[in-house]
């Protein structure tokens, strides 16, 4: 029985799903590949770490450096992003073909669904009109909540309706007894801090119903359509003003001086450049 289960697991792990998820491109080597690799870093992994020497001002390896040379100094610590910092996300400008930085860009220039940037629409509104078809990341807003300081000290009066996150932590037994010799570097548990100047906890808002979300979606669509209609109307007014100023559809180059004169239809006559 154990042999059958092992065989089945091996078959699933090496099936079509594994071929798709663990897809690897066969490397091609040409006579000019070393030159492209040294001069333009072609063929190097896109998620390689960022060169710290280049961030300080200069890199002794120059173009032959195996690490990324980015111009932005906003490089997070390697502990939070072990794959190289900002270049662990796909460049949203590169997806639209508008990235001006090219190779020195601090973000990835490759189509990788697992490293897409966060969806701004979902981040602002809590939902996305594209739903499951959206290519950007939908991060749970609850994961961004700050920890509740009252709960960290031992008790929060609001309980599960608190607007902040309640994180359970294991207390350090030495600190709980009165003193921990390791201080902030202690790995036995957390050291809760007591404070008397904390703000009162707030109640988290109730989640919106499907009807409210649908109404907001319809309102956003109506505002978008109204904005498009107003934009097209303004374009039409500007085009008519331009035609009246320079001739155009409402008059030729020589028709500026001509016009219909006379209050009555029968008495009026057209006076052009050569008219009488």
UniProtKB/TrEMBL annotation:
Residues 201-217, 232-247 have a biased composition (Basic and acidic residues). Residues 264-276 have a biased composition (Basic residues). GO terms for molecular function: RNA binding; zinc ion binding. Residues 45-72, 85-112, 113-141, 142-166, 167-194 form the C3H1-type domain. Residues 186-276 are annotated as: Disordered. GO terms for biological process: mRNA 3'-end processing. GO terms for cellular component: nucleus. Keywords: Metal-binding, mRNA processing, Nucleus, Repeat, RNA-binding, Zinc, Zinc-finger. A zinc finger (C3H1-type) spans 45-72, 85-112, 113-141, 142-166, 167-194. Residues 253-263 have a biased composition (Gly residues). Residues 219-230 have a biased composition (Low complexity). It is found in: Nucleus. InterPro entries: CPSF4/Yth1, Znf_CCCH, Znf_CCCH_sf. The keyword Zinc applies. Belongs to the CPSF4/YTH1 family. Component of the cleavage factor I (CF I) involved in pre-mRNA 3'-end processing. This is mRNA 3'-end-processing protein. It comes from Beauveria asiatica.
């Amino acid at each position: 029985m154990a042999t059958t289960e092992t065989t089945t697991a091996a078959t699933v792990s090496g099936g079509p799903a594994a071929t798709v998820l663990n897809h690897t491109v066969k490397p091609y080597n040409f006579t000019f590949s070393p030159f492209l690799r040294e001069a333009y870093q072609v063929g190097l992994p896109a998620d390689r770490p960022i060169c710290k020497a280049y961030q300080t001002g200069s890199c002794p390896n120059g173009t032959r450096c195996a690490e990324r040379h980015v111009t932005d100094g906003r490089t997070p610590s390697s502990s939070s992003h072990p794959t190289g910092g900002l270049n662990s996300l796909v460049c949203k400008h590169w997806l639209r073909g508008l990235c001006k930085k090219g190779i020195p860009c601090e973000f990835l220039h490759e189509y990788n669904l697992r490293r897409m940037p966060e969806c701004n629409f979902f981040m602002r509104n809590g939902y996305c009109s594209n739903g499951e078809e959206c290519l950007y990341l939908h991060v749970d807003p609850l994961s961004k909540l700050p920890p509740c300081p009252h709960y960290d000290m031992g008790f929060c009066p609001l309980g599960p309706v608190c607007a902040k996150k309640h994180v359970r932590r294991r207390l350090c037994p030495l600190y709980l007894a009165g003193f921990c010799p390791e201080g902030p570097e202690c790995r036995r548990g957390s050291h809760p801090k007591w404070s008397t100047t904390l703000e009162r906890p707030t109640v988290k808002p109730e989640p919106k119903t499907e009807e409210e979300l649908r109404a907001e979606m319809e309102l956003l669509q109506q505002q978008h359509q109204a904005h498009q209609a107003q934009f097209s109307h303004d374009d039409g007014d500007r085009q008519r003003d331009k035609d009246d100023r320079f001739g155009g559809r409402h008059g030729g180059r020589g028709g500026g001086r001509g016009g219909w004169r006379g209050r009555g239809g029968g008495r009026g006559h057209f006076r052009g450049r050569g008219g009488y």
